[in-house]
Structures are given as C-alpha cells and as structure tokens.
Amino acid sequence: MLHHVSVGVRNVEESVRFYDRVLATLGYERMMEFLPYAAAYGSGAPEFWVQLPADRSPASVGNGVHIAFKARTKEAIEAFHREALAAGARDEGAAGPRPIYGPHYFGAFVRDPDGNKLEACLAPEPVAAAPRAAPKRKKKAPKRKRAAKSKRKTRRRK
Q1: Counting Cβ atoms within 10 Å, is residue 53 exposed (0-12), middle (13-18) or buried (19+)?
Q2: Whose CA is closest to 78, among 67, 65, 91, 63?
Q3: Does any domain span residue 21?
Q4: What is the model's pTM?
Q5: Would you state the pLDDT for residue 107?
Q6: Residue 99 belongs to a domain with what CATH number?
Q7: How many domains does the chain have?
Q8: Distance from C-alpha of 52 to C-alpha of 25, rounded to nearest angstrom
Q9: What's the pLDDT band for 66 if we cut at 50, 70, 90?
C-alpha cells in the first residue's frame, strides 16, 4: 500500500550515522543520499527516508506516529533494540512478545535522537481471506406481451 515513509530530522548527516548502524541489524541499507538534505534506506527500494523538513522549519515529531520495520527473527529485533540504545536512542519498550497485538507478535520500541518513534517487529503475515464469489443474479423473467388495449367506443354526451 505505501511507497515510502519519511521522517523529519534536525541533521541528516548525524541521522545517517544512527540509521546506518540500527537498520543494518534488520538487513536494510542506505540506498540513496542527497546530503545534507536527505537519505533513504531499504532492501531493494528506498522505502524509508530521513530528511530535513521541506519548509526549512525545525523537524518535529508526529504525536501518535511510529514507524515499524519488519524483522526476520527475534534475534534481529533484540539487536535492533540494543544497537539503537547504544547509538543514542531512548528506550520505549524492550524486545519481547506483545500479546495485545496478537499471539505471535514480537517487537521492540525506541525513539531516535530526534524523537521519532521506531519499532522493529516480527508478526505473522495475515492470511488473505478467500475471494468471495460474486452474488448470483436472478434471471429476469421474460417480459410478457401486453394485450393490446381495446379501443372502447364511448358515447359522447350531448
């Protein structure tokens, strides 16, 4: 559904030092850079961007927003959390099960040095529902021929 996601940062060159280290634990790498303005990460395509805000105002954190990165293993999530804290992130939830999100959900949460909330998670992909058959349409009964209207002669009153 999404093509890419961007977060605002105060200094892209400082941010790439953080993200190079942290996203490597999940198998992602820096794919593009337009220093000192922006850099992009991904695996095959640049899907996550860190950048200076386009309006040149200081970057601010979105209240209620967080970015969740897919992980391949629980060990990768633990490494993500460990490396993020070592690189200056603030702890928002250690690696572990999150049964509130599902019986097999495993994740870790941090805030990057700019305050953006990040997550690494491992969750089974939802099973797609079987396609529903289109409702059967009722066949319309053939149109009946209407009887021709009889012309009644009416007497005019004088």
Answers
A1: middle
A2: 91
A3: yes
A4: 0.77
A5: 97
A6: 3.10.180.10
A7: 1
A8: 24
A9: very high
